[in-house]
Amino acid sequence: MLPPLPTDRHIVVLTTGGTIEKTYDEYTGHLANHRSIVRRTLERLRLSGAEVSVRELMSKDSLELTDDDRQAILDAVRETILDASRPTGVLILHGTDTLSKTGELLHEQLGSPAVPVVLTGAMRPFAMTRSDGVQNLTEALFAVGVLEPGVWCVFHGRALRFPGVTKDRERGTFVKP
After folding, report:
1. CA-CA distance, 162 to 151, in Å (whole number)?
2. I need a labelling partner for 19 at 20 to 30 A (CA). Which of 1, 94, 96, 107 fits?
3. Can you give the CATH number for the domain in which 60 is found?
4. In this structure, is residue 1 part of a structural domain?
5. Peptide bond into 163 cis (omega under 30)
6. CA 76, CA 4: separation in Å to the nearest integer?
7. Residue 55 — φ and ψ, nearest 5°?
């Protein structure tokens, strides 16, 4: 067996909930955020040369996020960027309904971050058939390693830099007009 490749990237994933991590509750019959499930998905990916750390901030639908929650996300990003382990990027799993609002706040408050800060989510949860969650997660993990520093939305094969990123509800994706 060959030794593992050296780790040249350290990505910190901050989870906030959102559709991407919703699970079906058989007792209530509803999709809901209970706790982060991204670790199970990450275990199935081959991420040679990358160390991925997961930090659970909250498990909320983005429509339920408050200004205090957004401040907690901003504080966590700042803390992560300044961490002595020197991550090469930050990935935030976020609900799509208010992802743009959080992205704009991060863009305004972080100025020029030293690393890429990428937000992504899904229109359908990881747990559902035809979910776009794994695609968006995989693309975002790749993007963190190749994008220049700044605040980005990575979704459906596109990397869109803040400011000005919005959800196009008709198309079910994100755009930058």
Report:
1. 6
2. 107
3. 3.40.50.1170
4. no
5. yes
6. 30
7. -125, 120
Domain that holds residue 27: 9-175
* Number of structural domains found in the chain: 1
pLDDT tens for each residue of 98-152: 999 999 999 999 989 999 999 999 887 656 667 788 899 999 999 999 999 999 9
Q: Where does 45-86 have alpha helices with state H?
A: 67-82
The reply to whether 69 falls in a domain is yes
pTM of the predicted protein model: 0.85
Q: b vs e for 72-91, b when ≥16 Cβ sit within 10 Å of the residue's Cβ?
A: bbbebbeebbeeeeebbbbb
The whole-angstrom distance between residue 45's C-alpha and the CA centroid of its chain comes to: 16
Contact residues for 149 (Cβ-Cβ < 8 A; gap 6+): 112, 113, 114, 115, 116
